[in-house]
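INFO  loader      accepted 1 record
INFO  loader      residues=367
INFO  predictor   begin
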Amino acid sequence: MLFTALVDRADETLGKLVDAELQMGLDSRLLIPLTSRHEQVEHPDLWGLPVRCDPRVTVRQWREYVHGNEDILHKEYLTPAGVLNTSVRLTRDWPHGERIPLMSDFLVPRSTKRLVTGPEDLQALQFLLTEPAEPDIVHFQREARQARAFADERGVLLAGGWGVGLDVAAWLCGIEETIVAAMERPAFVEDLLEIVHRWEIQRMEVVLSAPVDLYIRRGWYEGCDFVTPHFFRRAILPRLKKEVALAHERGAKFANIISSGTLPLLDCYLEAEVDVLIGIDPVQGTHTNMQIIKERVGHRICLWGGVSGSITVEMGTEDEVREAVREAMRVLGPTGFILSPVDNVREVTPVTWRNVDTFIDEWRRHW
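INFO  predictor   done
INFO  writer      dumping tokens
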């Protein structure tokens, strides 16, 4: 999955990360668009095409100095349909400088005023989620041709994305607020999801034109730690089915990232005809019993993961890493399975690199 520790060594430019993984003996993949996280100033946690506002939108940002406490950053979007505004606490670990991005995980615990709080904000929100601009499409198509040639030459998977659904609500509305709204104001959340879905389809059309082998959609905040199976089936599944169908029409497989709250949704993924579930985490995930997942969907859906990145790879002993790799391969393999740490290996420490080497060595012993 994500390998931030190696990205820090290799950088994310075309081919550098792929070649570094291939040199380690891994089965790599190239993800497009190739824009680095640091260049995605408005959407650092949504990999993909640029997120741009309607040109009629005016944006204003300012800092409020608070004596003896954390300063507050404010941002205001003046749209043809009204004003949206948000505020965040400027904590010491705030990574975005003097700006508030539209989409970032850091917004969730630090916002003092959510950007979207109710149905009255949705018309204005549509002016912040516009279809891909022509210059961005042209740039992507040029990049995609280079990436396709590179992926074919190296014999690696060309993946595109990221798609997104309810995760946008977590960034814009807050996680607790989204959970409560899904129970008490479901029509509001469904209307928000429809806006995001229409926007997502426009972005998918561009990425799938590459063409890509695999389209990846992030659904980290769609598991049943956050919403009920009933809400998922009513509000998320119909839109997910349309996105999967579009990917299949364009000749691509469809992958959905979910690392927790998975078991109650397995029938939905089968019904949607999802091809790959990314993020099977047996340690940190809830409702991620690997044996049950394999038995219920392994005949139809490829399972990607099997070992906790942050707990086992970054902090485990050598014996714990080897046992976790063997268990993942025994339960989830041998076919329809991609062995990978979940979600990320990011700590650059001697223990991390020792365990990465151990992980690969144990895989080779049993492959």
